[in-house]
Amino acid sequence: MNWNSIRTKLIAFMILATIIPTTAALIISYVTTTNALKERAVTENQNLLYQGRMNLESDLEELNRNSLTVYSDPEFFRSLYYSHGNISTGGRQSATMQSMYHAITGTRQVYLYVDGQRESTLYAQDIARKASDIRLYREIPDLQGRKLFIQPPHALHTYGFQLAYPYEENTKVLTLYRVIERVPSSERLGLVAIDLDMTFLSRISSQLFQPGNEQLYIASEDGIVMYSGDEARIGRPLGEDWYKTIMASGQQQGYFEHNDNIYVYNRVQTSVSNWTMIKEIPSSYILSSADKAAFINILLLAVSFLLIIAAMIWISVRITAPIRELVGFMSQVKSGRMTVDIESDRKDEIGILYRRFSSMMDTINNLILQEYKLKLANRTNQLRALQAQVNPHFMNNALQTIGTLALEHDMKRIYSLISALARMMRYSMYNTDKPVTLRTELNHIKDYIELQKERFENGFDFRYDVEESTLELTIPKMLIQPLVENFFKHGMNPVARDNYILVQSRRLSPSLVQITVEDNGNGMPEEQFEALQAQLRQLEELDLEQLQVSSEDKEDHSGIGLINIMTRLKLYSRGKSGFNLENNQPRGFRVVLTIHVEGETDEGIDRR
After folding, report:
1. What residues form the membrane-spanning segments (predicted)?
2. pLDDT value at 264 more than 90
């Protein structure tokens, strides 16, 4: 082994750099993770118990309000002074007990005993059963002066009544007892008992712990288990040390660790109870994921040593060689060779680097080519206007002289038309390869329209609907005027009185503008329209580098050089703009340009 080689030094360094920090990281990570897991478990379970407490308190308060129906129903309260023999009394009591029976989910039965009449009523299985001249049922516990009491879970009984469908054996319920008094005095009139099956507690409690791994207790103020994941504990007293610790704390909620278990508790305080929800979580259950992660990390550390050695050898061969090759390509580009053949079939970062560098070179070459073609297209579009001018400056000066002479003879209309024509010539002659603002292009179109109105004696209507926010956006020069000119060459009907041409612009997005040129002229014959659409679709499928701009003075059958316009638009926006033709119904023609706005304002045009 050559200790002076980069490969050997790299392998040795990576092994040392892996062993020391990884081992330390494993120890620190395990300690930190175990503490974090405990803290997170406590926080999550405190939140969980809080939510469970709120739900349970809500249900208990609802149960309390349901039992208060004996006071809120005046007819029922008055019925306590009369015997069952009174039909109205019996019906009123049955109706109220039925309402109480259906008000709380999980209610098994409702029992009423009236002291003065020595009568009892049991509403169960949707039937009210009555008995007279009997004593209070013997299994009802001594309330010891309490007016409201919830009896811990006990075996379900029928208060001495016979039911059509006997209950299942060992069915447990918890019972709310409320003493009925002659308010405002404390004289007792009777007692109402509401039996609830264990779903009253289990539907909330079962969502608060993981059976088999965790345990949940709901203990009454007397330390009796009202609910537990272990059914054998239900109804029995809690005497464990951890419960005594909770009772001694006097806090509303809290947690502590005892005998490798974490206990999280929260008190349920309502007008009918002072219970405590306690969740027991084994520390081993909380830390099981940390122990498993530590084992996996140790295993991965051993495997990583082997992988590091193999990876260093592979990296030195796979990375350094292609990097040197790429540096050579860069040197060729630096020397001026812009057509370097850069290819790589690698799928990793080196391959991406190759492809990005190759893409960058293609982009640079395409930008150079597109810029050249765009300038060529702009100049080609101006060719017709310049071919007829033997001396453009002479013609412009001559027009200014004629205009001045017309003004001296008070021929203002002639002066206005000559000035419009002069502005059009200046617009056509200067800076043909630079983009202009939409405002500048529209001013040129207005000058053109003014001349055409004189020519056709105002035989058409020019409509102008342009959003203000689009006027300063830049577009290729002479892009819209040929579309307007097409109306007068091919579309206008001289005998019609409703001729119009519309130029409209709308901003579709911050970088997208739609320009529409529409008329109600003769339109285009369907056969020619289909042929033109096919030609434009072929042009749309070409890549930017395949576009060719013709410098010959040829017009297509439509007379507006649509191919030239679409080519210039595609080059200007690098293929991001759209071009759409439509034959209006019943007559007319529409061209819709969707332009991706780029370029700079042409500041060389004097529009004054």
Report:
1. 294-315
2. yes
